[in-house]
Design a protein that fits this description.
26% strand, globular, six-stranded antiparallel beta sheet
């Protein structure tokens, strides 16, 4: 007896590109606010399935920006026409972060970029002589997709800044 072929999964609805920017003081209390903002933005745009991973990634990126600098930081949340969510944390330090090669699970710090590396489809670092504060700054970014595929480079996912480092390719 032949069974009917399974119906293909419905295509995800097309979502218009968007970008939100959240400028925060150098204060650890900004992290929960940023997480809530990420969840609210993604839920409003019908991207709730990305919210948990995006919240964790955003909090790691922004925590690094707050811990390793003394000035304010900015979190950018953007959805592209290629169905890619990019999270970018700008800060006022122009030196790229130095990821630890094998952080110990019980270390108090040093695991943030390892989490970003494992949860993001792609991530990287850019510096700019005229970043978000009109002074030298850097952006640490990561991108995720609904399918969480990491099988090579895709369309232009990177911000148009000088490339320092690209991980996850």
């Amino acid at each position: 007896m032949l069974l009917p072929a399974p119906k293909p999964a419905p295509a995800a609805p097309e979502i218009e590109p968007f970008e939100y920017r959240l400028r925060v003081p150098n204060d650890a209390r900004a992290i929960p606010l940023a997480r809530s903002t990420v969840r609210a933005a993604l839920t409003a745009h019908k991207l709730g399935e990305l919210a948990a991973r995006a919240e964790l990634l955003a909090s790691e990126l922004l925590t690094n920006a707050i811990v390793h600098t003394v000035d304010e930081a900015e979190l950018r949340i953007s959805w592209s026409q290629w169905d890619v969510l990019t999270l970018t944390a700008w800060d006022t330090e122009d030196l790229p972060p130095t990821p630890r090669s094998n952080p110990h699970p019980y270390d108090v710090d040093g695991r943030g970029l390892a989490l970003v590396r494992s949860l993001a489809d792609r991530w990287g670092v850019y510096s700019s002589p005229h970043g978000f504060t009109c002074g030298a700054s850097k952006a640490v970014w990561c991108s995720i997709t609904r399918s969480h595929v990491t099988d090579g480079p895709g369309p232009a996912l990177e911000p148009p800044l000088r490339r320092l480092q690209l991980r996850g390719e």
